[in-house]
Amino acid sequence: MRLHHWLRRLAGRLAAVHSRSGTAGLSAHLSVRLVRRILVEVLPPSSDELIYARHDRGFALISTRSPGVRMYFQCDPKDSVDTWSDDRIWSELHARVDIADGWQITGGRIFQKNIVGMRSFVSTPMQSGKLFLAGDAAHIVPPTGAKGLNLAVSDVRVLNAALVDFYKEGGTEKLARYTETTLKRVWRAEHFPWWMTRMLHKLDDTSPFEQRLQIAELEHVTTSRAAATALVELRRQRGGRSELA
Ligand SMILES: Cc1cc2nc3c(=O)[nH]c(=O)nc-3n(C[C@H](O)[C@H](O)[C@H](O)COP(=O)(O)OP(=O)(O)OC[C@H]3O[C@@H](n4cnc5c(N)ncnc54)[C@H](O)[C@@H]3O)c2cc1C
């Protein structure tokens, strides 16, 4: 069978499994607040450093990419990208990211813009019979932490080792333990982007009390060495080394 036949069958099967999650034994486990962001790719870069900003107008992220820079900012869930002209985008980014000491983002040529939805999602278990889920089919992390691709590759490494064992030795133990082995790492990787998203976004369903707590938490992270170290540790961790890979 050709690869594209297999992929098509797999995608169809996945849709069916997700829609009949109860019968297949898979459940969509958690979907944390959906926020939408405008994503723009710009030349030249504004900064060599990654910048996260929480502003009363909403979140902004200046990410680093070669050769340009990718910037995100939280938008209204009902927005359409057509209503965001380049001038309006720059004015919004300046309002959210420029700081009082005079530093400001560098303007440039926007060569791509679109609106992307952000959510956290985990399907558990990640297998049902002979069906194994890997990557975004099994779990989504908001790109606040740049972990989705690493996580997908890690799943594939674990699954590959299990399949090699099955086809070479007839071993089924690694396949049977695929979910158990991968999920621990998945949950650890979900933690950082979920936490950063919750701390830095303006969320409609939070009370003024919770919004004040967001700021208190952010002040803690930016003024305490211990808290900053914990952030870096969470950012770097890949959820531990897989015992199967
Ligand atoms: C805006 C944004 C920024 C991101 N930034 C980062 C980052 O900086 N770092 C990071 O690690 N991750 C990042 N991610 C996440 C990362 O892109 C994904 O987690 C990763 O691509 C998941 O890989 P995957 O193979 O599971 O799925 P995908 O990359 O989505 O691959 C699925 C493939 O299947 C194909 N396909 C779908 N349906 C069918 C079908 N019916 N038949 C045949 N083919 C089909 C699709 O065309 C696609 O090529 C970002 C995601 C977004 C949305």
Topology:
Layout: H1 3-19, H2 21-24, E1 27-43, E2 51-55, E3 58-64, E4 69-75, H3 86-97, E5 109-124, E6 127-128, E7 131-132, E8 139-140, H4 148-169, H5 173-176, H6 178-200, H7 208-223, H8 225-236
Antiparallel strand pairs: 1-4, 1-5, 2-3, 3-4, 5-8, 6-7
Characterize the largest beta sheet: strand count, sense, and whether it forms a barrel.
6 strands, antiparallel
Number of domain modules:
2
Secondary-structure arrangement, i.e. CATH architecture of the largest domain: 3-Layer(bba) Sandwich
CATH class of the largest domain: Alpha Beta
CATH homology-level superfamily of the largest domain:
FAD/NAD(P)-binding domain
Q: Order of strands in the sheet with the most strands?
A: 2-3-4-1-5-8
* Helicity level: 40-55%
Name the poorly predicted regions.
1-17, 19-24, 239-245
How many β-strand runs? 8
What CATH calls the topology of the largest domain is FAD/NAD(P)-binding domain
Shape: elongated
Q: Please, what is the average pLDDT?
A: 80
The total of helices stands at 8
- From the N-terminal CA to the C-terminal CA, the straight-line distance is 28 Å
Give me the strand/helix succession: HHEEEEHEEEEHHHHH
Amount of beta strand? 15-25%
Q: What small molecules accompany the polymer chains?
A: flavin-adenine dinucleotide
Descriptive labels:
245 residues, alpha+beta, 8 helices, 2 domains, disordered N terminus, 8 strands, 6-stranded antiparallel sheet, FAD/NAD(P)-binding domain, disordered C terminus, elongated, binds flavin-adenine dinucleotide, D-Amino Acid Oxidase, Chain A, domain 2
